[in-house]
Structure formats: structure tokens, C-alpha cells
Amino acid sequence: MKDTREEGFFEEIEHTADVAIRCGGPDLKALFSNAARGMYLLMGITPAPAGPVEAITVAISAADVEGLLVDWLGELAYRAETGGLVPEQMVFRVLTRTRVEAELRGRRQHGFTRVIKAVTYHDLNVEKTHEGYAATVVFDV
Amino acid sequence: MDPTQLEKIGPYTYQISADWRPDMQAPARLLADPDILEAASGDRSLEQLVNTACLPGIVRYALAMPDVHQGYGFPIGGVAATAAPDGIISPGGVGYDINCGVRLLGTHLQTEEVRPHLDELISALYAHCPSGVGKGGAIRLQTRDLRQVLEQGARWALKRGLASESDLERTEGSGCLPEAEAGCVSERALERGRDQVGTLGAGNHFIEIDAVAEVFDARAADRMGLAPDGVVVQIHCGSRGLGHQVCSDYVKRFQKAIHTYGLRLPDRELVCAPLSSPEGREYLAAMTAAANYAFANRQVLTHGIRRSFEQALAGKVSRHSVFQVYDVAHNMARIETHRIEGQPRKLCVHRKGATRAFGPGSPDLPPIYRDIGQPVLVPGSMGTCSWVLRGTEAAMEQTFGSTCHGAGRRLSRRQARKRFKGVKLRQDLERSGIHVRAGSMAGLAEEAPKAYKDVDRVVEVVHGAGIARKVARLIPLAVIKG
Known about the structure:
By secondary structure, chain A is an alpha+beta fold. Chain A has helices spanning 28-43, 65-81; strands at residues 2-5, 8-13, 19-25, 46-47, 54-61, 85-95, 99-111, 118-119, 127-128, 133-140. Chain A has 2 helices and 10 strands. Chain A is globular, with a radius of gyration of 14 Å. Chain B is of the alpha+beta class. Chain B has a domain at 3-200 and 241-375: tRNA-splicing ligase RtcB. Chain B is built from 16 helices and 19 strands. In chain B, a hairpin with a 2-residue loop joins strand 12 and strand 13 (343-352). The mean pLDDT of chain B is 95. Chain A binds chain B through residues 12-19, 44, 63, 66-67, 70-71, 74, 78, 81-82, 112-115, 117-124, 138, 140-141, and chain B through 43, 69-73, 76, 95-97, 133-134, 188, 191-192, 201-203, 241, 244-245, 247-248, 251-252, 255-256, 267-269, 271, 409-415, 440, 442-443.
């Protein structure tokens, strides 16, 4: 499945032992939000159909943009796995190559079909493309 | 990589010389037959093996077992030893599922005694051994107890009446590795591990009831309590969310450490730190703590299996007791002593998707197995056979006492989902007499037998190369997948 949006794209790609996505967008915000959407797709997340919409703030720093993307996805996977919020809306207050602060709004997860053991650094490279930014992320499952 | 780039240096050994790429610190070796070599050349396994040979201070060579397939950082099936205490330790050489491993339990039952009760037995197992994504178990640990699990491993379960001394004796490292320090494990990892002791998880983890189909080494099989047509149980799982978090925490921390110690690597997933550095010491302590958690996890599952046998079979068969054959890790780094050029040297042996296979006479083996060599447990893919092997002197000489760990994937999970349907697969397995319980049909499809290589072929290579010897072949009767 390839999900192409005005703001970019994400799609599952082949990896023998684990799972991987290719994602991108016109800017880092699109890249980070599409990477998260791609990961939720792999996790088979079902958000709760009803219930209160919650809001949380996630703030992460890393030494470089690849590390920031790994930590961002790792934080979201942890929250989703432990029954926390699955954002329908992500508002990035700060997003540089070493810092992300985002307000996430959505409902808690209602179920999922795959555990992401980890977001890996394997072959991870946030590339500057003609369209903006793109990255391939390999997940250990 | 073109397979002709590898030089055949033995009947089952291929080598890439250390000058093949300028950043290699040692040669890279693959144990394979021509078909396995061809398959390994089809993905990035060999490139990852070469990357592993670039680890600073690697001793002798980087190795890949015949079940090699593409992973991240190390290939799955990779083995690398570094000198202790001055060499490096790499979380990527262990993997995220720290001490993922296999436990084999024996019984005094024959297949025909159990077959009429399989449905009841599998239902009891499904109830007593929680499985599936994100599932917690019956035990929710307070921090003090959780720290004890991390530092005492399966011995913690013994104190709780969930294990026997014999279980512990027949576990790698007696199920309690002394280097563990709970204080090196993060709060988040503790939180993830609080309710997962005694749970199977999902993915490729399983509990399987098997029959001993064939015995190849009567003396070793007898010592392990395995007889033709006997019923045994395999458990395949690891350290759950706690282990995943420990690895993630230290991969992150080591991203800085490589700059601190001036280490140059071809893949960031190979990040490492000197064993003698604060980062290296603390990772070893945290990784070992997670390994102890995994031993405790498989031990509590063993207790659940014993309860299931009691519930389903008491009064219906002569003896329903379950004893432990062995428990061995296949994602781990251990400080071990090996002979290098005739001299004993302390090494940090990383095995990522590879099994320890110590030969006869090793002081690290329990007395019952010391003269036959360590039992090696090699699960096949669901629906195909599994193997019990034993470690050899040749493994000590050639592979740092290591051998294969399974069949190795052939198809990606995505390809498997496209090609197989879980419901149809379950019907096919049940038609061939294998009972199946699975939490997810999509997950079942990803684990289809045809998504994996032929485990018999992998075993022929390790047997032929002499780095493990066949003891018995197992065939499945029933399987539980998370």
C-alpha cells in the first residue's frame, strides 16, 4: 500500500527479516508525520472509535536528524504499544535537525496487530530530494 | 554480492579475505553449501557480514551460520568475538530481543497417548501461557521483585516455586548470569517489563508440542531423555518489551560513544563501545539483566506448561510430568574463554541469531551433558521439523563454540502475506495433523513454513562442517503462535 498525500508519502518496502517503510514529504514536518503514519500502518493500529480526544506534547533532542527520527518514532511506538494516544493530528511547534516539539491530539489505541520491537538506524539516511526530504526506516519486529 | 567473490576454504566454509574492503579488520566466513551461498548472495547478508568484520578489535574472523539472512547491522546468523576487556561490545551484535532463545522440555509420554487429548492440551496451554501482541501475564511485578528477576533470572522463579533445581542446572549459565545489574536498566524498560514475565509475545515466537521423529545419536538422546515417538515441548521467546527497550536505550547512547572513542563503522546499527568503558560495562550489565529476564520468562512459561499438562492429562495418561532438557539463547553476547592460537583468551562472543554450541568437556556445561556436549536447539519453521543437536570440539576450534539457530527467512514478511493466507494455512496444517492456535491470521501467514529456508539443509551444513552433530529430529503435533 502506498499512501500518497499532498504533503508527502509513505509505503511499506521489502526487507527479508523485518519490515521497512519509505517515507517523505516537502519538509521535515511532512517527513516526520508520514514516518509516524507509516509506522502505525505497520503496527496495524486501531484507534478507539469513540472516547475523549486527548492532547500530549512530545519533546525530543538528538545529535542529528537521523537520531531524531529514530527517537521520535520510538517514542510514538512506545506510547501506542502501552495503550497511549494515537495522534490524528500532529502540530510541530519546533522541528529542527536536532530538536522536535510536537503537540499530538487523538484517541487512545484500541488494538494493534504487530509489535515494533525497535526503530533501527540501519541504512537510515534523511535525504534531501527534489521534492523535499525522504528516508527509509527499518523496524525490528 | 557476487558469490564468486568468496573463496571456498573447506567443504562447507567460504571466506571473504580481509583485504576485500579497506575497512575490514578481519576476514569474513560463511558456513554454507552452494545453494545457501547463492541465496545469501541474493540479499544484503554478505554485505552485512563484511560490515561485521569491520568491528574494531574483532578476533580471527566474522562468521555467518548457514541460516544467515539479512538483518540490520549484523546479519541474522552472525557471530563476532572481540577481546575482553579491551575490545568492543555492540548492542547491534545482540539484537533487540535480548536472549531470544529456545527451551526444550521432555516428557515420559508417547505420541499416541497424547494425540486424543491434543485439543484439550492446546486449549490449556493457550490459557496458561499468555500470547499475542502487547499481552501481559498473570504476574505484575513491583519494582523490587522486578529488580530481583533482572539479577537472579530463573533463580527468582525457583524461590517462587515456579522452577526446580534441575531446570536451572539445564539452562545456559544456570539461567542466572552474574554480570547483571538492574541499576543499568532504564525506568522505561522496567515499566515495559513489569507485567510480561511468563508471556510468549507475538511474531515468530511460539510454543510447540512435538514428537521425536528420529534419533541419530542414541547415547546423547538417551542422556537428554529423548526417545523415538516421545512427546516434547519447545518454547521460543525472549525478553519481551524490556529487552527491546534496553537495546534501544544503549544503541542511542552508543551513537555518542563512537565519537567519544573515535570508532569508525560502516553502519550506525553496529555502534559499539570498549568493554572497559563506562558505556560498555553498563551495556553488558543491562543486556545481561535483560537476558536473565528472558530466562525467568521461559521458566514461568514452563510452569504454565506443567500446569497445562496436569490440567489436560492427569488421570488420562500414566505420567504427565514435564522435565527440562535444555534452554539456550540465540541473541546474546557472553564473556567466554576460548583458545586462540593455543592460548586461552577471554573474549566477548556476540551471537545474533546463532546458538552457543560448546563441545564435550567444557566446564561451562552441567555435569549431565559434560561428556556429550551442549544440547543445541534448532527450531524449524511452523509445520516443518526441528532439530536437537549437540555442540562439538570443532565448534570450539572454528566458530567460538557457535552454530545455527533456525531455518532463516527466505521471503520477506510482506511477500509472505501476499503469497499465503492465514486461514488457509491453518486449514492446511490441520489437515496434515498439526493443531494450530494463533492470535493473528496475518501474523500466521508471515510465519508460513514456505517463508523460511529448509531447516534440514541448514542442519546438514552444520553437521557436515562438524560444528554441531545431529541428535534427534522433531516433528510438530501442535503449535501456539502469538
